[in-house]
Structure formats: structure tokens, C-alpha cells
């Protein structure tokens, strides 16, 4: 089967590539609902043309549509759900070498080349540059070409597909839950595939069973009511920048361990199967240290995957007055730190925020959730404002779910090298909605290259990765699978 | 004598005020050499019109002139030097209620009123708004009116005056030393008065004997070569914002004590006379806590003046990535803190920077004075870049200098209430050049109101303070003084 699919894509892949480029030419920046409607209609049109039964669902005028669909309705066959998001991160022109919505093909040496036509050879190392090329229109293109290839070879799929294409993922999926609850009847499947993210650092295909959850915290501490001349008052007026430094230093020690009471207590220990999966992962740390230009990890010698099994406490930004050319000789009036906590399985966002609040109080701070009043500032020598964004929990599908081994086999067959089973990604996606509402195991099956510049300028997809996606979906569609429901 | 001076200024003060307003209408922003030349010429012209022998001295085309002069040449009389700077801080329109170079008179209720004419009464609580109104053209106006008043009353001065009017103070006085060395013959005096800064918080007149010195330090610590996705790498990649927090927290404890080895060792203990002066100062702390809207000082219960006798370690700004609406879910690539150390008597800037460097090494950091190379970043898990601006030392004229008691008497007589002898201001001025090169004791004799918005928008001078300045200079000029040189 794969031979026939590969023959097809070598001869006719240019067609799929042209269609992909047309889809990428549609501005899909996540906050532009009008643009997103055009994308939704285009995506639905492409799948309708392959015989899928598609629906463009609307919640309200100011909400991007959810595109659902179904390809194959044989009740004796298992059904796989495919989740893809068609919206993209904002893309101003700054930093882009070519306009983000003028898809541009480049050779490995960086030279721009025209899209290939009939009979022209295509190099795996060419890359297509555009917002959404990798994140997350790539799986749509791969799926369309896979369906075309099977049809051209006269090969009948052995599984039904159900589609859920979202237009608000890059905005934090604010309406996904509502859409799923309202339309769960259209979205019945034995398992859901999340097609997003890159393949493993080693280049190996991977099946990812979970993501970390998320909660955001902003801490602001207060000094004098306005900035003061640091000569006249420095050494006497309290300095909020230094107070904040002490506070942050109290949250996580120099050895990388979070010292907030109870921070690690609710985390579910890895299961035996997860431990086995973790132990089998190839090391990436030396490669990463080189890529990132650093001498050691936060906890020297630690493995990335082991650290991802635990909640993180990351200071994503600090501000107090200014530094460098903008520095003024002042005692700052306030100091602020933005923090993100990535939640591991078992952690509850609200509970984690409570632990942080308790820690701040233990450090002698009066904790408020809004600007303190002048009276409060006169009363309490130490005040910290805590703003929390509760986010969502982590999700981990057990290694033991039958779909996991099945998908690892499919990915390995498609890639021609064994797939990696990764218990969790470090990032956060609101996967738990799918698991909770649709009641099916969820697994991520990434296809993009690691260096795809996801969320950044010059996002790109290496064509070899697009072809891997084609092979992956073709294999998935044609491999017999035990329905366990 | 004071009665006659006061009679004069009540009747004719409007003339001096009009002349003052004309001087303030000249843009004097510190980096505009052309504008500063116009100011220098105008100032020289005003004193020449009173019979002073003035000189506008030029060093180079791109350097603001130094204005020197002499009023009175009787070799049997003592000679007092008066230092004033005629340049002002930059003054964009932002934040100003009236244009900074359109001097505007306002009543105590905030209403704009025209400049008074002949015979009109003038309220002490009116304020004149303009850049430079307080800092530092006010003493020029007060001096001119005092000279006019004495002349009008036929009172002969008993001291000679020598003038040193600088045009680069707000730029850090980069050429003052060169000017003084080159022209020291013109600048011989028994003592120098620095006329700058505000009267005491309590409103009492004050004689200030010193200032703290200055040195600036900027620390930058390094994480990954570029910002990383905090989900994929948070908990594994080292976070420079947290490293910086630990580093700053290690420099100064939660109780306000600098924990850098040797930081306090070189500070000269207050002399007995300084202790007595300090003990006699009125408390201002409760008033300050109220004004600044804070519950306690950095060291709760400490007196401002006591803290100013010691070097400060002030974090004037911190930056790592961004916070608030600009926050991104990243591990920052670098984190930077700007620090100013105010030096006390006895401290050497270079030595203090060495102590900071030694402290950073003690914390396990590799210290560099430029951007670390990629090879250094791969080798050292902790690197801190230390950029130092060495600044200048503190200056304290001994309380026992005869001029101190003399000036305290003069100020007390002029104000009608006892003057405060303040061993040091918290701020920094390069006073040591005057003491070193001209070899005479230096004392600051401020006249401006405390809430003059020095360096900020809406700088202003309360007219009552201008009149205090007039009385002060008239008293100084007519009080017998023992020449001790």
C-alpha cells in the first residue's frame, strides 16, 4: 500500500502542494473572525470535494466556526477522530523574510524556487514558508493528499474518520467546550488524534499521550507611591524590586526545586508503563545544550522528559522601572513578575494558586487580588497583588490504551523507523475537553519538523515532513484495528 | 538691614520677578549647547548690569560655557564663592500643565495669574512654573534681587563674591574639573556655596555639608541563547530571571542590610560633631511615610539621615522578557538589573565595584565585563556581565569648619527660625572637584521649596522661597565674617 501511495505522491504530489499553498494564502490570524470564516469554508470545501460530509458550525457572530465532518460511515469499522486547528498565531510582517500569507517555497540553501509542476522532482529538504504551514494546516494537507492517493490506487479505507477542525486554538480555545457539548453527537469516535506540534528532537516519529496543564500568575509588589530619587531616599525607602527578588528566590531554590509547600504533593507519580516509556526515550539533552548554547540544565544532568512529568514554576518576565539606556536613578514604585505554572497530571490550577498565596503570606506579605488601597499600603509593610489565570488541567492518556500501541505501529510503519511513545509534551493544549466531553482517549500525532518556527516569524514545513504525514494518514486509514468500544 | 531689604522687595520685587521670568523663558535643556550659550550670555549680562566683572569661558564648541565673575574686590574682606548651574533637565511637553519655557505664575488654588506689576501685592504662596525655576536658576534671581535691594538701600556689602555658574550639571558635569583646573585663578575663595536642592522636609532652612558619591552597576545574567517556549522547556532550561532574583537577594537581606563582604568597611564613621548635628535634626519620618504612602521604611523605624551616612545598594530597575499584557509564555534569554550605589565618605567607587564582583564570584558566577562568547556560555552554567560606571566619591565638609556656623547663623537670621546643619544629602553632586581643586570648604545652601518637582514636569518655585533666598544673600553679604585663610 505505502509503495502505491508514495508512487502517487511522487507523480501527483505537486497538485496537493499547490492546493496546500492556496489554503496557506488565506490569512488565518486567530483574532480575525471574518478571515477565519473564509478558512473554515475553504477547508470544508476541500474535504467535501473528497466526498466527506462536512458542516461549518456557528456559535455566534464573533466566534470562529467549528468545522466538523465524516469520511466513511461503515458501522462495522472503527472510527478515528482527527482534531486540527485551522487558525494561526498573529503574523505581523516584522521578522518575516517573505510575507506570511504569500506561501514561498525555498530550497535547502535558502533560495526561493517556484512551486513544482507536473513531472518535476521534489526535494524532501525543500520547505514551504507561511503562517500555518506547520501549525496547524499541515495535517489538513497531508490528510487530503493521503485520501487522494488511496483513491487513485483504488485502496479502500478500513477506518472511518470524524473531523473536528477548530478556529480558536491560538486564542486559547475559549469556545471549544461549548462546541463539543452542543455537537457531541457529530463527534463520536473510538479515539481522537490531535495533529499538532513537531516530531521528536531526534527526528523520530512520536506518539504523544499528554500535555501539561496551565495556570498563569502575576505578582506585583509595592514600594513608595511614586518613583523616588534614589539618592535622596535610597537606603531608607523600601525597594519593591529587591522585595520581589526575595519573594521569587523564596519560591524556587538555586537547585531548581520549587520550595512552595505542597507544590509537588498532588502530582500523580508516573505509572509503571509510563516509566518504561520514559526509560526507552532517546537522550536529547546534549543536543539541546548545544542548540540552546548553555552549559547545563536548571537541574544539571536532569532529563527533559523527567522534568516534564512535574509541574513547573517559570518566571516568564520581570519588570521594575527600567534598565540600560532607559534606567533612571530611582527607587521603583512597583515591581512585577509574570509566572506560568505548567501543571502535571493530578494538579488542580485553583489549588496551585492557593499554595502560592499561602507561600506569599508565609513570607510576611499581605496578599490582595486587586490594586491595594492607600490605607492598605499605609498599614502593611509588605503587600503583594496576585492575579491568577486559572487555565486548565494536564491530560495524560494511559500507555495501556490499545490505541497507543496501534498508533505507534502506524507511525513507525509510515516513517520506516520505530516511533517514540512520549508520556507528555511540556506544552499545554486544552485536550481535557475532548477526553471529558467526548469520552475517548486522545493522542497527539505530530508531523512537523522540529525547527518549524511555530508561533514565530518564518514558520515553515519541511516537505519530507508533509510526505511523512501523507504516509501516516494512509497507513492509519488502511491498517486493521481492533475497535475496543 | 533685613527690614530695608524686605521693604525693597515688597515694593520692587515685581521687577526681579519679571527679570527672572525672562531668564526662565530661555530653553536651557542640558544637552543643547547653542541654547546654553544663550543662557550663559544672558546670565553674564544680568550680573554685568550690577557691576560685576563677568567672563563667559569656552572650552570647546560642543561644551557649554562656564560663566565666572567677581563682585567686590576689597582684599581686606573675605571672599565667598557661589556655585549655581544654569542648565536644566530635559523637558518634553509630556506631563507639563503649561509649557516648560513659558514661565507661568499660579495662585495657591492652582489658578493662573499674570505677573504682578508695580504696586501690586505678591503672595508668598504663589508659585512660578518653568523648567529651571527651582533647579537651579532660583539662586541667580535671588542673588540679583539681593544686590539690587542692598544697593537701593545704600548698604555696602562686607564680603566679596566670586561666581562659578556651570552649564553641564544636569549632564553629570563632564567638564567641570577641566574648567576648574584651567581657571582656578579666577576662582579663589574662602569657601564655596553650592546653591541647589530644597530646604529641609520640615521647611526649616538648612546648611548641608556634603553629598553621597555615586557608582552605577548593571548586571546581566544569561539563560538559553534565545527565548524558549516555557511549556516545552520550562523546568529544564535555566531561567535567568530566577537566577537574577537569587543574585539580588544574595546582595541585600530582607532586613535591608547589604550582605556583600566588606560593603560597609571603608565608610568613615560620623565624627562627634556630625553625631551631634544628626541628633539635633528634627524627625521627618512620620511625615515621609505619609507622603510616600508606605507603612514602614526599608529598615523599619530607621531615621532617613542615619541611613544617608552609609552607602546604599539600590535596585533602580529590572527587566526580563515582559509582564502584563506583553507577557509571553517563555523562558527569558537574559535578565538585567540596574543598580546604583550611593557612596558614603571613605568609600571608593572602584573598590566597591570590586567587592560586588567578588560577591558574584562567591555566588558561583563567572563574571565578565562584556557580552559572553558562545564558548563561555557553553562552559559556565552561571555567567554574569557586570558593567560599571565609576562615578565619583562622596564629599563631607567637617562640621567644625568656621564657615559652617557662620552660614547657619546667616540662614537662621534670614529665615527667622533656626537653621538645620545637615551632615549630608542623600543625592550625589560632583562637589569633590571644588574641594580638591579650589581647596576651599564647600557647603550647600538650598532655597527651593521641597515640593518643587525638581527633574520632573511642572517644576516650580514658591515665591516665599525666592524671598527667603533674597534675604539669605542679603544677610550673607552684610554679615561680618572672620576670614580663616
From TrEMBL, chains A, B:
Domain (Peptidase M20 dimerisation) ranges: 210-365
UniProt-listed Pfam families: M20_dimer, Peptidase_M20
Signal peptide: none
UniProt record, GO biological process: proteolysis
Keywords for this protein: Hydrolase, Metal-binding, Protease
Metal-binding as UniProt keyword: yes
MF annotations from Gene Ontology: metal ion binding; peptidase activity
Highest taxon of the lineage: Bacteria
SUPFAM superfamilies, sorted: Zn-dependent exopeptidases
Cited InterPro entries: Cyt/Met_Dipeptidase, Peptidase_M20, Peptidase_M20_dimer
Record's protein name: Peptidase M20
Native organism: Virgisporangium aurantiacum
Lineage of the species this protein comes from: Bacteria, Bacillati, Actinomycetota, Actinomycetes, Micromonosporales
